[in-house]
Structures are given as structure tokens and as C-alpha cells.
Amino acid sequence: MSGKQPFAQNTTARTASVRLPVRAGVDERTGGVLTGSVLAERVGWCIDLVSAMVTLLLTEHGNARDIGVLAAGRDAEGKVLPSRAWVALRRLGWMVEAPVKVNDRIVRIAQEQAGRALRSALWRAEVVAGVLATWPADPSRRTELEWGRVRAAVPGGAHLPAGVIKARTRQITEFRTTHGRLPADVFEVESTPRVARMLLLAACDRQQATLARVDGEPGRALLRLQLPTRPDPASYADWTWVSCPISLPPTVPADAVLHLPTLRAEGGEVVADLAFTHAVPKAARTGHTVAIGVDWGLNTLLSAGSVRLHDSGKITALGAGGQYRAAGVQAKLHRLRRQSEHLHAKAAHYSRLLDGRHDPPLAAKADLLVREIEHVDARRARLNDALAWSAARWTVDQAVAARATVIYLEDLRSMEARGMGRTMNTRLSQTVRGKIAERIRHLAAETGLAVVIVPARGTFRHCPQCLTPLRHRQAPDRPTVPGWKWAICPDNGCGWQGDRDTGAWRRIAARGLAHQTKTVTDKTTGTMVIRTVVDQLETRAVITPTTPTGPTDHRADRSKTGPTAKTSRPAPRRRGAPSPTGPPGPVGKRPEGHAPKDRYRLPRAVHRHQDVTTTSTTTTRGRHRPRGAALGAGFHLHAHATPPQWSEPIPDPQSDTGSTKLISDAIRPG
Question: With a threshold of 0.90, does the pTM exceed it?
Fold first, then answer.
């Protein structure tokens, strides 16, 4: 089922996807039931036919001349090429013939997949061409003038992360070291891309595949498609219609428009990537009064909090914010990365030993090692994906709880991990910031939240209340020891101090609210972003300190200087008389003395040095040894997060009388 659907006012269309298993099917010609393994075999035969044709197209047209023709966007008659890749390839006359009998819709699928791959190669070719045209004198260190030249030569280079240009520079440098010259284009640097094993049913029509919901059951859909009955079909009689029932998860709305999925055969099972379109509230670029600021970190992966923009132009913080800490998860990822590097080095050694030799036992070990590498890489991918979804859901929950209308993210696309040691640099470069930001935008669209990228310049260096450069110390109880965790404002008139991450998210949120009129939407990615910082607007991006009675500049010092209650004598640490004897069994008072040694041991999450808002001053800096890895507790023991404050009363922005509502009345994400 596909097509356009009218949406209500102030709503927009949102297209998402979900991965579903296809467990069985029914052959409509014979009426026989196809098990999961048989269905996967038949889908695999069809994928093999498509992959062979895609390989032929990429080998024939994966060159600079044909990519230039495709990039021009016009055919031989001067007409504009359509957006559909398979139609564009047919306009250019790039046809392919299958070695066996297939219908024209299967050829469409192959042309669509090849056309997408060729169009994606265009951007890589333009980047490499720009880097080659402005090749620096020292590839390892460009000057400011050379950086300006290469950014001007690369399409969209003004906002392209520096890491992309550096990666292409290293790739070209390696080619020059091997061949003694610079490459002519990207096709000399890169080989023909590997063809993904998938079946793009979106390129078909009803003569090859259909998808419709089951009448009376909105949670079920029926997929019908033609599949071969043998790996080398000789006629159209070797193709039959197969009906596959699909169960839709609750995340797919009942009124969503379903699109034909992409099928994959993995491990003897068929997996469908199903896309659907539904209506969501439209996010606004401007007009925000309550915002969430999010700061990135390493051990404290995310620090976030909400601020409010008043009618007078003042910005105040709503609470102390929260943190999402994933040190244990990232330590596990670091260990898996080291294990993967060790396995890759061992596999390369086996490959050198097998060069030109016939050694079946060693070849069997090499094959086993390749499978182990794939297993470890899959574990890293799953853990990264789980971490990204968990962190994104936490961020969106914080925004919904505070009734914010926008989430401001720090722009760290050009951040490079260097100068902090090999281990720390590697851990910084392995963080999944891009994936987390993508998941945040995905989940925020469900509730109409805008996600805006804010420049990161000076977010942790300046005071959030007066913009004075901060002094960073090790901890609040060590104000003279240099460090990075605790920030102190040297201005006596301000006197702000707090966690560095807390000051950073306040600066990000305040900067976003002050510059919200400068928000633009990127035409290529659709991402809302604030490009530059305006000095005149930056002077307004300060947090005004508040008290329960309203904004003020000073707070009364409520530090505890003595005992709260005075008594005539201190209470004894233990009873002086033996405790009375009770009946046998668990009933009665606990005997005198210390707690039993076999009492349940509290998890690390409740330890005072593991709290999400604690700045630890402990001197024990031993190696991280998470208990969850040994006990099999899994992901959640090592991801500590501040829960959303659902019951905290906040002013209702829709009320004219200034009344308050409970946050629990806010719309929670589905």
C-alpha cells in the first residue's frame, strides 16, 4: 500500500521504518506452506539474480565519465532525468540482461539498486577531486590558507566536517606511497563497491509485489510477491506468487501508509525493512520559550537541562538538569574494539602465511577467525545501537517532561580526539554521537519537538551567568587543584560554580534561544542548524539566577556550619545491653552487632561515587571492572540516568492566568 494521504493543519508527514521478521509464506499455486528456511532459500535465489545484475552495472558504469553523465541530470535529448534511479538508467540506455529468465520488474530492482550506488559515488568523487585540486605541501598539516582552498573546492565544504577531508587526504597519501603518484580520481583509490544482498521491492509495481493491511486487523499486513522456484529459472512458469503474513508492531500507527519493504535473507531467515508514513505535529524553527540543552561527554555521555525564555528577555534555568552516564557500556565497547583489532591483526598474519601455500588446517583456522571477527563486529554494532536508542529516548523524555518545544544539540561534527593520550583519543573517536543525534531527531518528530544544532565554540569555557572565562578545578572541595570537572567563575559579582557539563548545557540552551531567529534548515539533510554565533545576540545568552520568589542576583548562604540539633550527649553507636531473645526463626529483632556478611550487596548504581550528579573526589583510580560483565547483568546495570521529574509543577505556557500544571499532564512520547 502506498500513495499520498492528506494531513491536518499544523502536521507534517513523517516516514520511518521498522525491521520485521517474515516467518512463513504460502505458495498460491500449490497451496503449500513455506517454512521460514524454505522461504529464505527462495528469497535468496531472487537476491542472487539481482546481485549479479547489479554487479554488471557497477562494473560497466562505475567510472568517471558515466558518473559525470549521471551527475549532469539530463539524457541525450536534454530532458531532465527523473528522481527514480531505474528510470534514469533506462533514459540513459544503461540496460542489463539476466542470464536466466526473469521478468522486467526484477531488472527494475537491479537498476534501482545500481543507480542509487552510482549516485552516491558522485559525492565521493567530488570530494576527492576537490582534495586533489588543492593538494597541500604537507598533507599531515594544512595551513589556514590551504584549508580555505580545499573547502572552496569541495561542494558544501564550508560546513563539511574536517574529519572527512582528513580521511580522504590519508586515503590519497596511502595511494601515493604505494604507487608513487597521485590518483586521477576516486575510482583509482576505491575499488568497485560491494553489492548489498537485498531486494528493493519499492522499485516494483503490482505485477511483482503488493502490500495491504488485513481487513479488521490493523496490526497485521499481507505481502504478496513473485519468487522463483529454482535458482536458475528457465521460464515464467518457474515463478510463483507467495503470500507472507506480517505482524506489525505497536510503533506502526493504525492510520499509517505502508510502503513495499526491502527484503534481506540473513542466517536462514527473511527480514523485512518496512517503511511507513504517518502524520506528526509540525516542528517550529522559532518562537520557542522552553528549551532543552544537551552537552556531549565521555563517561557522562549526555548532560541536559531545561531553560525558559521570559517576556522580558531573561533566561532562567528550570532545575538542576540531569545526566546520562554510560561509562560501563563504553568500557565494554572499548574492550570489544581491542578484541576486534587483535583478531584483525591475527587474520592478516594468517593471510600472509597462506599466500601461495596450500595448507588446509591453516585455511580452516583463517575461516574460523573471519567468522569470529564478524561475530565481534555484530556485538559492537548491537551495543552501539542499544546505547544510541537508550540515550535518545532519555533526552526526548527530559524534553517532554519539561514541556520544551526544542532540543538544542552541541555541534561536534568537526571535533577531533587528539592530545589526550592514545587510549582516551580512541575512546573519544569511538563515541556514537552521530547515531545518537539521528535517533533524537527520529524520536523528537513523534511529539513535534524541533532539534537544532548549535555551534560549540566556548560552551564550557565561559560562565553561563556572566560569560566570564571559567577556572576549571578537580572538585568543589579542591578549589586550588587544577582539573577539568568543576568550574568556578572568578567574577566576585557572579560567583557561579558547578559541574562543567552543567554549565555547558546551560550555555547551549541559552545560545539556542538567543539565536533562534538565525535557525535555518539544511536543504540536503533537512536538519535545523544555527550556522554562526552573533556577538550582539550572544550577550543575551546568559542564565539569570533565580530563587523561589523570582529572579535575583544573589542568594542567601545556607551552608551548614554546625550540628543541626544539639543534645546533651551523643547517641551510642551500638546498644550497651544485649538485645532480648526472641522466638526462633526470622521473626524478632536482629541480634546485636554488625550486619550479617551475607546481606545483599547493593549494585554500583547506588554507590555514592556512581551517582549521576556526584562529583567524586576519591583518590582510588583503579581500572574499571564492571560487575555486570561478570554477573551477566547486561546493559542496564552500566547506564545510569537521571529520571524525568514528572510531578514537578511548572508554569503552564498556555495559561493566561499564570497557573501551574503538573508535568504528568504533558503529552508523553509513544
Answer: no
